[in-house]
Amino acid sequence: MRNDAPLVGVLAMQGAFAEHQRALEASGARTRLVKDLEDLEGLDALVLPGGESTTMTMLMERVGLLEPLRDAISRGLPTLATCAGMIVLARDVTGGIEGQRGMGLLDIAVRRNGYGRQIDSFEADLEVAGLGGKTFPGVFIRSPLLESTGSAEVVATHEGRAVAVRQGSILALCFHPELTSDRRLHQELVRMAGVGRS
Ligand code: GLN
Predict the structure, then answer these.
(1) Distance in Å, CA 4 to ligand 1 centroid
(2) Could you list the active site residues?
(3) What pLDDT sits at residue 117?
(4) What is the pLDDT of residue 101?
């Protein structure tokens, strides 16, 4: 990897961080797993992976990362948030555990596991605005359901519902691009990271 390649942090409390790391490296980025405060230093972009939003938030709080991460993202650190990562950033969270709250950085209301138990995992081909070319393979695993998208821009829908949004330097997805071989969304984050640096 080139030394001047953007450095992208992947929050590594729990969940699908290793897959994101591989996808980012295949997209031309240097990566760093983010486990504590020092790991935030010098990042050009960030990934908040899928996993379990309750556990992820609790662990961030425990290691003192919750507020510093919120600050960094609100100051414009380009961020790709997938699934549980999207929940972590949300304005409103329903279906969570008692008292579960998002960081309030993304103007969306999400219902955890909102696609229901019957169809908790599925795949769908998605038209993602700005990607061009062929559809993107959306892999949904106990995904949050977007109930409102406020001032966020909807960049992909599935059966009439938003499944990907963009707001400022945040790109948030209900699905898991790290579980496919399509690297276009990771490449988009790497591009955003480069723009932030220049
Ligand atoms: N259901 C999980 C949560 O609420 C999210 C699922 C996922 O990230 N694949 O945190």
Answers:
(1) 34
(2) 83, 176, 178
(3) 66
(4) 83
Residue 196 pLDDT exceeds 90: no
What is the rounded distance in angstroms from the CA atom of residue 152 to the CA atom of residue 85?
A: 16
Between the CA of 87 and the centroid of ligand 1 the distance, in Å, is 8
Q: How far is 4 from 15, CA to CA, in rounded Å?
A: 28
Residue reference for tokens 């990934």:
47
Give the span between the Cα atoms of 55 and 59, in whole angstroms: 6
Q: Considering the entire predicted model, what is its pTM? A: 0.96
Taking the CA of residue 82 as reference, the ligand 1 atom at the shortest distance is: 8
How buried is 98 (Cβ within 10 angstroms: 0-12 exposed, 13-18 middle, 19+ buried)?
A: exposed
**In the structure, which protein residues have their CB atom closer than 6 angstroms to any atom of ligand 1?**
50-53, 83-84, 87, 112-113, 141-142
Residue whose entry in the numeric block shows the structure tokens 């295949």:
26
Average model confidence (pLDDT) across the chain: 94
Domain 7-197 -> CATH class: alpha beta
Model confidence over 39-82: pLDDT tens digits?
Answer: 999 999 999 999 999 999 999 999 999 999 999 999 999 999 99
Q: How far apart are CA 77 and CA 64, in angstroms?
A: 18
> At what angle are helices 184-197 and 17-25 packed, to 10 degrees?
70
